[in-house]
Design brief:
By secondary structure, this protein is an alpha/beta fold. It has six helices and five strands. The protein has a single domain (about 5-140), classed as Hypothetical protein TM1506 (Cytidine Deaminase, domain 2, 3-Layer(aba) Sandwich), CATH 3.40.140.
């Protein structure tokens, strides 16, 4: 079983929100919502994520940009927006989803989520990574 299929299976069977796998091994898993578990997995694994597979419940702009930054090989999302899927594909990342949506709205559907707003203001994935690292450091 390939890493992306293994991640997809675990995402569904274990009701996780995030699975990162490489070489048949899970690098990170989380049942937490939001972009923070995604970001923490990148901090913990660094360049070890190059070529890994990511299965996530929802892929929006920030996680998609992190995947580009970390040079992820493939992404599966239970739900993803059309723009993020296109961006991943344009960057050579295999991307698949069960459900396409039009945008990354916040949980109550009234506005873009704060991380999507932050990501829209960034010129590159590395700039987003640095901005989020600074923002989370200030919060702690």
């Amino acid at each position: 079983m390939e890493d992306i299929e293994r991640g997809r299976y675990r995402l569904k069977q274990e009701r996780l929100n995030l699975v990162m796998a490489k070489g048949g091994q899970a690098l990170a898993t989380s049942d937490e919502n939001g972009v923070c578990p995604f970001f923490e997995a990148f901090l913990d694994n660094g360049s070890g994520l190059h070529g890994a597979a990511v299965a996530d419940r929802i892929v929006r702009l920030s996680p998609a940009m992190f995947c580009v930054y970390a040079q992820i090989a493939s992404v599966y999302a239970s739900m993803a927006s059309k723009g993020e899927l296109a961006m991943l594909s344009e960057q050579g990342i295999n991307a698949a989803t069960e459900r396409k949506v039009s945008s990354g709205l916040n949980p109550d559907g009234t506005d873009l989520c704060p991380f999507a707003k932050l990501a829209q203001r960034m010129n590159s994935p590395s700039q987003l990574f640095s901005a989020l690292e600074l923002m989370l450091a200030k919060a702690n």
